[in-house]
Specification:
CATH class of the domain at 2-168 and 199-231 and 297-308: Alpha Beta
Number of helices: 12
Structural class: alpha/beta
Order of helices and strands: EHEHEHEHEHEEHEEHEEHHHHH
Shape: globular
Largest sheet: 7 strands, parallel
Number of strands: 11
Radius of gyration: 20 Å
Strand content: 5-15%
Distance between the termini: 23 Å
Strand order of the largest sheet: 3-2-1-4-5-6-10
CATH superfamily of the domain at 2-168 and 199-231 and 297-308: NAD(P)-binding Rossmann-like Domain
CATH architecture of the domain at 2-168 and 199-231 and 297-308: 3-Layer(aba) Sandwich
């Protein structure tokens, strides 16, 4: 198949390209950002520079396409306005579906997020009513509604919606990378018991599972279906941290700062963040996210349909630490935030 991947040069998109091209599919990467040297060398991968807010560029990329994987999104915690979240995540989704309709493309895989559930008392299933608390979660939920409308407009349209938890692995510069870097530099301080569950997804696992479900099993054969994704079994924050220490060959910390004291100490930093709008590495929100908040998600639905992934969370952490030590440590963190306004592509 010829598969268009929006956001195709990113962390997850590059993994899709690697695995899909390995199975003989042709991938068209549609992205604001240039591909890596590895993608450029792949004869089954074509790059088209473009923004999902640019209808003309999307229409150009859609020619000859059999299916679409929609990954392009605004998702960072800082540096993105609510309007940009809406324009990219909601407007971009509508542009993709409209372009697919114009070109007769009927097969879509959309990567949403478990962030749309918001705060829940029990691990949410796919039947749990979304209650998003962030612009990212809210706009992804709105994008899902557009997918539903697209399927309702034509009964032969097929849409698989994946709702992943935090995705990690080599070449990712998000939360797990920050944790590894802090531990490696000796700047990490354990706070509280860190017994809270942190559901994770290793990138090769979720991508291979999506391919199996969407292409091999051709699910859903019509209409739309939703799947949470996490790797099982879950680990707590303390176990994740201890695994990173082990893979870095560092001594595990003995001391743990009491949670109440940590919150008092970072209060001035919270004020500075509020006043300056800067994304600082320490804050009450970050402490709560790592040491307090449970992010346990029920993904039993997908694991009952697809064979269990071959890479465990601990093996995934090992792979990421090995990549970090070999090359990731020396890398400059790339800026993949979408601009507030797009400029029409010269390719269109």
């Amino acid at each position: 198949m010829n598969i268009l991947i929006t956001g195709g040069t990113g962390f997850v998109g590059s993994t899709f390209c690697r695995l899909l091209s390995g199975e003989g599919h042709s991938c068209i990467c549609f992205d604001l950002h240039e591909p890596s040297s590895e993608l450029i060398k792949n004869n089954n991968v074509k790059f088209i520079h473009g923004d999902v807010r640019d209808i003309a560029a999307l229409d150009q990329a859609m020619v000859g396409v059999d299916a679409v994987i929609h990954l392009a999104a605004a998702h960072h915690d800082f540096g993105i306005s609510e309007q940009t979240f809406h324009d990219v995540n909601v407007g971009g989704m509508k542009n993709v579906c409209d372009s697919m309709q114009r070109h007769g493309v009927k097969k879509l895989c959309f990567f949403s997020t478990v962030a749309l559930y918001g705060k829940q008392d029990t691990p949410p299933t796919e039947e749990t009513a979304p209650e998003p608390t962030t612009p990212y979660g809210a706009t992804k939920f709105a994008a899902e509604k557009i997918c539903i409308q697209w399927c309702e407009a034509n009964q032969t349209n097929q849409c698989l919606v994946m709702r992943p938890t935090v995705i990690f692995g080599p070449n990712s510069f998000a939360n797990m990378y920050s944790l590894i870097r802090q531990i490696d530099s000796g700047r990490f301080l354990r706070v509280g018991k860190m017994a809270n569950i942190k559901s994770l997804a290793f990138v090769d696992n979720i991508v291979s599972t999506s391919i199996d479900l969407w292409i091999t099993k051709n699910h859903p054969q019509q209409g739309i279906d939703f799947f949470n994704y996490v790797d099982v079994p879950d680990l707590c924050s303390r176990q994740i941290v201890e695994n990173v220490y082990q893979e870095l060959n560092r001594k595990k910390p003995v001391f743990s700062l009491p949670l109440w004291l940590a919150r008092i100490l970072v209060f001035p930093i919270d004020l500075l963040i509020k006043i300056s709008g800067k994304n600082l590495p320490i804050s009450t929100a970050r402490i709560n996210k790592l040491a307090v908040a449970d992010t346990q998600i029920d993904a039993s639905k997908i694991h009952e349909i697809v064979d269990p992934p071959t890479i465990s969370v601990t093996d995934g952490i090992q792979q990421m630490v090995n990549w970090y030590q070999a090359e990731g440590k020396a890398c400059t963190t790339p800026n993949r935030r979408p601009p507030n306004k797009f400029q029409a592509s010269t390719n269109a």
